[in-house]
Structure formats: structure tokens, C-alpha cells
Automatic annotation (TrEMBL):
Sequence similarity: Belongs to the LysR transcriptional regulatory family.
Domain of life the protein comes from: Bacteria
UniProt GO cellular component terms: cytosol
Keywords: DNA-binding, Transcription, Transcription regulation
InterPro entries: HTH-type_LysR_regulators, LysR_HTH_N, LysR_subst-bd, WH-like_DNA-bd_sf, WH_DNA-bd_sf
Residues of the HTH lysR-type domain: 1-58
GO molecular function, one term: DNA binding
Protein name per UniProt: DNA-binding transcriptional regulator, LysR family
CDD domains attached to this UniProt entry: PBP2_LTTR_substrate (cd05466)
Organism encoding this protein: Pisciglobus halotolerans
Pfam family, any one: LysR_substrate
Amino acid sequence: MDIRQLKYFIEIAETESLSQAARNLFVTQPTLSLALKKIESDLNTKLFSHTEKPFQLTATGEVLYQKGQTVVELFDGLVQEIHTMELTTQKETIRLGLTTLFSIQFMDQLAEFIIKNPNVELNIRQEGSAKLQRLLVDNTIDIALLSFPNHETDKVAIEPLETTTKGYTVYVVVPEKNPLSKKDALTFSDLKDQTFASLTKDFMIGTMLTERARAHGYEPNITMYHNDLQVLLYSLLKSNAICLLPIEYKSMIDIKGLKWIPLKDKYSHYSIGIGLRKDHVCSKAMNDLIAMIKKN
């Protein structure tokens, strides 16, 4: 006897009719008849009496009916609990956007979050901070670790980070054969006649180069745009161009023949923060991720 057959028996007992039970269970009468015979054979007893009217429970049938209802309820409850557990253990997906620099600087915190949250799938997308703000607006990502300023103030809120990593500082990367390499510090006025290789405007520095050069009265001569750090740096050696990059990159990829010189400008430092859409409601897992990032 299995749970399905037990359910058949209970339905027959309650309806006192094989045909009605078959309709209620959406099965054929022969199916119910065979199931009933199988149960009676397994238990070696008659479950129904037909002397006065059809399908009256015998003494053993009454016991099976009463106890069987409890068994069916427990079984159905168990199945429901398992289904509920399956739903609650399905992985939540968090779409995190951050720059290449921040992915390295906050790798310990991200790795710890992944280890402690096996039911969360962290999808990481690396882009420049300007593009990350647009991705938040478009609902392409849920949360971003990015730098100020906020260009999407109507829809995006950025909470400043008070961690050991508070931001990054822009330096000028110059080939040693370039006369500027002799300088201890540089201003945008010093860069007027230079050729630039630059990050695109997906990055704050890409926008900053054009805006600050124009503020100093010239249009920067940008001969190449690229968002790959190594491509940019190695191109400088071939072209004698210069580029603006966070000094924090230097410890990650220090190429011989290049000098990193401080840029003296009021916009040479960028603070960073956690960006969210203003209408976004954070799940517990997202709040845990934010808390983990703040441990940096």
C-alpha cells in the first residue's frame, strides 16, 4: 500500500461511492477497484461491508480511515515543507557593478561575502563609475561601488564610504623619455601641448581630462581611447603620449620606463561610495553585502 492508494481508500470511505470517488479523484472506477483490492490484499482484511448499503467501513476499515487521514495530512505537510524549503533555498542574484580598481581593493570583502552566503549568486560587472551610474538608472545592476560625482541625482543615491579605502588620486603617467618626467608635480597647464591616451567617458577620469583641459583654455589632443589599463600604459611607451590614472593602480601594474607624477588640481581626488537606485528596496542579502563592503 502506498500513499496514493491510501488517498483513494479515504475518498471512497467519505463518498461511499466508487463512481463519485472516481470523479472526485479524476481517475477511472477500475483504477479505484484495483487499488482497493490491492490494499485489502496487502492488509489481509476487508475494509468495507456491503450488507446493508455499499461501502460501509468495517472495524479494520474504520481504524485505517481514522489513522490514514493523519498519515495523509502528515505526508502532504511534509511535501509542502520540502517545496517551501526548495523555494527559500533558491539562489538570490545580486548584480554588483564596480570598477577594476575597486574589484581588487575590495576583493577580500567580496570573497568573504560569497563564502558566507552560498545561496546568493553575486554577478559582478566591471565598468567605469560614470557608466555604472547609468546602469543603475537602467536597472541593469542592483548596486554599485563607484566614485563621485553623482551625475544621476534624480534616480541614484550614493552613500560615501568611510572605509580604509576612501577614494583614489589621479596622477599623470609619463614615459621617462618625455621631458615632463623630470617634474615632481604637474598641472593641467603643463599638459597643454601633450598627446594623450585616455580612458573613455565611461570613467570619471575620461570626462575630467576634457573638462579640466578646457577650463585651462585648450582642447586635449587625445589620440587613443581605451579602458584596458595595460593597453593604455604600454601604448605610452610606443607613442610617448601621457595618460591620467589613479596612483593606486601603480602597485598592481608597475611598468618600467614610466613615471607616475602627482597632478596638482582641485579635482585630482575622487571619493567613492555605494550607489543604489532611489526606488530600490534592499533585500537582507544586499544589506549584508553593503555591511561587508563597509568592513574594508
